[in-house]
Amino acid sequence: MIIVIEPLSRIFVDDRVVKLTKLNDSTFGGFCNCGGEMIQRGIATIGDERMIIVECKSCWKTDAIVFNGRLRTEKVEVEIVDRRNFKEFLKKHLTELEYESLIKKAHGEDYNYNAFSRAKKKLEDMGFDSDEVLFLLQF
Ligand SMILES: [Zn+2]
Q1: 114 CB-contact burial (10 Å; exposed 0-12 / middle 13-18 / buried 19+)
Q2: How far is the CA of 9 from the centre of ligand 1 (A)?
Q3: Which of 64, 103, 119, 120 places its Cα 20 to 30 Å from the Cα of 136?
Q4: Which pLDDT does position 88 carry in this prediction?
Q5: CA 100–ligand 1 middle distance (angstroms)
Q6: Percent of all residues in the chain with a pLDDT value above 70, rounded to a whole number
Q7: Which domain holds residue 77?
Q8: Does residue 72 register a pLDDT over 70?
């Protein structure tokens, strides 16, 4: 499963987060199953693989085209995490206590220091910038 974390421009794949470089030039990215035209929205590199995120102009479905070297290897369906469901995403990867400590810290409230340290370490081990995550949780 490939997840695009929209607000942080990251891709989550194989339990790791990698940076997604956004493309704004509307380059053609193939055709969708619905017959619509897809445009390239972003590109990411994961080890030896390059991935182009494409979005359908008709039905808004998002796919990842995964390249290994120069060969097109596969087209994979993508799940989008936006501002609304980013918290749900975090809850799946942190304990309740860790998640609460992040929210409290983001809102400037008293928080459980140990739980926060564990949450921060987990996020950073995944490849997140914990300050970026905290910033997003302020809202
Ligand atoms: Zn489509």
Answers
A1: exposed
A2: 22
A3: 64
A4: 95
A5: 38
A6: 98
A7: 2-81
A8: no
Amino acid 124: pLDDT:
96
CA of 41 to the centre of ligand 1 (A): 14
Distance (Å) from CA 61 to ligand 1 centroid: 6
Residues with CB under 5 A from ligand 1 (ion): 32, 34, 36, 56, 58-59, 61
Q: 106 falls in which pLDDT band (50, 70, 90)?
A: very high
CA 50 / ligand 1 centre spacing (Å): 22
Mean pLDDT estimate for the chain: 93
Q: How much distance in Å is there from the Cα of 35 to the middle of ligand 1? A: 6
Is 79 in contact with 71 (CB distance < 8 Å)? no
User: What does the alpha-carbon distance between residue 11 and residue 60 come to, in Å, rounded to a whole number?
Assistant: 18
Nearest alpha carbon to residue 128 among 11, 1, 50: 11
Residues 72, 102 within the same domain: no
DSSP state of 35: S
14 and 62 within one domain: yes
Give yes or no: residues 93 and 72 share one domain.
no
